[in-house]
């Protein structure tokens, strides 16, 4: 599995559709002034992978992830994020082994309706969780460290730390 | 299962024991089970002793020492079982230049098996990038992403001085 | 007393309202009493709106925006009633270059009435110093303090590459 | 009141007596590698001004502030910190107005015995608190911001924030 691209529209501070094509090997650096939207990109990735807590996305309720408007734009009615992976050795679970690319999508309407998709087909959150099982991604995974949380592993409880080791098991 | 957890825990501990002294130029650190009799539910403790220091409560470690200890454990897990990608949001903020250098060098090693995405304000960290993305709010309140070449990246971080600066 | 709190609160609010747009190149922020009827026990809320953005929950602000909002309030209190000294431990860690510049410029202004002691790893922040102290652990585990001139300070932060670096 | 000098011995990572003479006007910058003892200096200042919580000094119990030894030194039996102020306009409360310099000292022995002093004379913690009343120093004061705590003022409760304003009242 290799990360290919992230597409967001109407998510947090991103009103228009934005697409980021990650390089296949090596390090992608993300820069920009304070408040420009860098950590919102991290939130977008955690959200599409199934994050259920608005508080963990720095909001009060989940609706806070939908673009709330600016002095020059109206609020959006929908937040949508798609994360695409290359599936080179078709190493994913049987269901998706014939695809060379897998994309997961999450949408949230201001009405409260929300949906998940894999390769544009509606699915449940548990399907997405299953897709990434044993990869270290999503949930209590060890692959995403949010801003200001690097020392949480050292200061958290012994049981929380165990959950990190369990992810790799 | 119990057996699986124990095996994984041991393997990660080997990696962590090896990586900590690399990150601190000496000293030692290891993981310990809170309750070795109960493999199914036991918590995992960290014991860390930077070079020259006595074994102390982790809370006495400095901001930079805590960050480097945490990074050593995360990277140890990656060395045992690389995840497809690793996303780090300003983890280098508390590090001094020497530790920043060690962090950068180790990330480069791990890119053999995983893609790294690193958010930073630190120019030395930017230098390890193979590609760079700039997030801007040219229209205040609306984020956009542009892909920049390295030279321009430096300019992007120095936004035009706004009035009041 | 009630009357005293109300007077002080109003005066600090005036300073905060003036300082926030300076720190953000626009926008507005102010303090609000949670319960204006109960001056004796009311809490104090912060309302902050960076330029171009709608009024939102403070938790949505970025790391750097939160730090600058907090510094604007602290400095507003200093402007109302300067304390003899101000001790800041790596408060510049989350700031980008432009905000670091604004922070530095404002500290210089406040030194008229207060002594500032600033712990930092950031070379730009070091430049506003009138004196520099280096803390070292040449003997591992034991701290000493040396006073350094500015040029040497730069060397102090680049400790000799320890083995394993 | 102007900060003159800080003296510490046996406090946290400082086994030997160390003295820092602050410049009277302007900005003193403190630099050094990770883990060298910079934040311990902040803890020393908060401790001598009366900090009562070991947890707020990053320890488990107050004894953790006494130098615990290193691979080349034995543990100390006593931690002591002295903070001296110039009292130019003799602007302090009546008791100390004839002194041109005021120093506050705190000592803690491994036996658990602890004492406070003002100008080398034993006193109570409340005397030290009284000395700094209305200056913004000590207690819930606004003059010391610890590492990683800058955004606490923004994320704390409205009542905690009020305490900050009360300090200035
Ligand atoms: N739903 C939303 N609608 C519009 N804007 C939003 C929404 N949610 C968050 N924001 C805006 O996003 C901004 C924060 O972005 P983010 O945290 O990504 O900044 P950052 O680039 O990480 O900055 P820093 O370098 O300071 O960490 C805030 O100013 C906030 O107003
Ligand atoms: N009682 C004690 N005896 C001996 N050493 C101690 C004691 N208490 C703390 N230390 C040591 O002090 C060190 C931390 O120092 P401090 O937090 O001041 O570092 P710092 O210079 O602020 O570093 P950073 O730049 O990473 O924030 C730890 O390594 C810890 O072991
Ligand atoms: Mg951020
Ligand atoms: Mg520190």
Can you describe what's shown?
By secondary structure, chain A is of the alpha+beta class. Chain A contains four helices and eight strands. Helix content of chain A is 20%, strand content 27%. In chain A, strands 2-1-4-5-6-7 form a six-stranded antiparallel β-sheet. In chain A, a hairpin with an 8-residue loop joins strand 1 and strand 2 (18-21). The longest helix of chain A is centred in the first third of the chain and has 11 residues, at 38-48. Chain B has 165 residues and is of the alpha+beta class. Chain B starts with a helix and ends in an 8-residue tail after the last helix. The radius of gyration of chain B is 19 Å and the shape is globular. Mean pLDDT of chain B is 91; it is low at 159-165. In chain B, 41% of the residues lie in helices and 23% in strands. Chains in contact: A-B, A-C, B-C, B-D, C-D. Strand 4 (115-119) of chain C pairs parallel with strand 3 of chain D. One magnesium ion (MG) binds next to helix 1 of chain D.
User: What's the helix count of chain A?
Assistant: 4
Helices and strands of chain B, in N-to-C order? Answer: HEEHEHEHEEH
Q: What average pLDDT do the residues of chain A reach?
A: 92
- Share of residues in strands of chain A: 25-35%
Rg calculated over all Cα atoms of chain B: 19 Å
Q: What gyration radius of chain A follows from the Cα positions, in whole Å?
A: 16 Å
Low-confidence stretches of chain B: 159-165
Mean pLDDT of chain B: 91
Biggest sheet of chain B, in brief? Answer: 2 strands, antiparallel
Give the names of the bound compounds. Answer: adenosine-5'-triphosphate, magnesium ion
Quaternary organization: heterotetramer
Please, how many helices of chain B? 5
**H and E order of chain A:** EEEHEEEEHEHH
**Overall shape of chain B:** globular
